[in-house]
# Entry
Amino acid sequence: MEQKFFREPSTFVGHVELNITNLASSLEFYQEVIGLQILEQSERRAVLTADGKTGLISLVQPEQAAPKQANTTGLYHYAILLPNRVDLAKVIQHFSELNIRIGASDHLVSEALYLNDPDGNGIEIYVDRPSSTWTWKNSEVAMTVDPLDIKDIMGDLGNESWEGLPAGTVIGHIHLHVSELKNTEEFYREGLGFDVVNRFGAQALFISTGGYHHHIGLNTWAGAGAPAPAENSAGLAFFALTLPSEGAREKVIDRLQGLGYDVERDDEVFMTKDPSGNRIKLQV
# Structure
């Protein structure tokens, strides 16, 4: 993992908060299967960490929590980025021992596994190839969906075994269902300051800062005009964007408000919504 994409001056996804229907069963899954640790816990909320210090994912059980709604905007998947390839080999071995069903893809820029949590929230666990090997043409990066060579990855394992997610783990990106792409692109590009790095026909858009392959994916695969889910349904509560400085956040807020989008402030917490209702926390 190349740290430059997840520190200033880049803007990146620093945290994801999920609504779930049963905190106890979700915690069991996230600890035993995914390998995160509990950083904080209350009756209806828990914060999970890989390094014992930094919260990566929060789980919240709303009052009268409802199952995840199909064909709505919100989470397609969020992606956990591992420091190196041997970490991915350890995860594959661990999933195999637990008999966990997974999807797997080679994206040229990265090697990835896919699975769902107990509520159907999509999770990607991946490792990047060195950025020097990524192919760029006219400011777009080449990405694909090829079969993953699991045998080759497992050749890196040696005698090492899985002991949970390593300390260098971060949220690599988030991929969202949106209702349309025109206003969405304006919001993320002109408002938040992201660059478009890949267009997948008229159905998906990949954006980043600092030359990463993508910090955010946006797609209309839930249907054009898809509605936002109910607030108490399982799925994405919000994701946090980490901005490089207070000044950068002020500029983002000015640009968003200039485009007609609201930014709510509660003490030092700044929240906004994209055109599809996906909630975003603006943090420094």
The mean pLDDT is 97. The chain has one domain: 3-283. Helices lie at 23-34, 85-98, 150-154, 182-191, 246-258. The two ends are 22 Å apart (CA to CA).
